[in-house]
Design goal:
Layout (H helix, E strand, L loop, with lengths): L2 E7 L5 E6 L4 E8 L11 E5 L7 E9 L5 E7 L8 E7 L7 E5 L8 H8 L1
Antiparallel strand pairs: 1-2, 1-8, 2-3, 3-4, 4-5, 5-6, 6-7, 7-8
Length: about 120
């Protein structure tokens, strides 16, 4: 999987870091969602301009993994993007204070000729 971001925990139980792709080069913050009233609501909101909790551009949900590990599944959307960015934030195996944001291809957005290759 391709790393598209590097994050560190901040003092507010969230994460701060950069997302860098061909079209995105942005400092963002993952801020705990204070309005989480159900399991379906996101655990984190992704903000531009981390200094003053700028515009919300995405959301993240904590997902439990195997071996007591967990990740945050993130979706980022913007009118300039053809499809939303789907990614997951996981702790770096070598350094527990660093988190990598891995891009994940959404199968439903893959063009038909390639979809058969990815699914089979």
């Amino acid at each position: 999987m391709q790393v598209i971001g590097v994050f560190q925990k901040d003092e507010h139980e969230g994460f701060m870091g950069f997302i860098k792709t061909l079209y995105v080069d942005q400092l963002v913050a993952l801020v705990p969602n204070e309005d989480k009233s159900s399991d379906k609501k996101p655990d984190y909101l992704v903000h531009l301009d981390p200094e003053d909790n700028g515009e919300i551009i995405g959301a993240g949900w904590i997902r439990a993994g195997e071996d007591d590990t967990s990740c945050i599944v993130i979706v980022i959307d913007d009118p300039a993007l053809v499809t939303p960015i789907n990614a997951k934030l996981e702790v770096c195996e070598e350094r527990a204070d660093i988190y990598y944001l891995y891009w994940q291809r959404s199968i439903r957005h893959v063009h038909a000729p390639f979809q058969a290759e990815l699914v089979n």
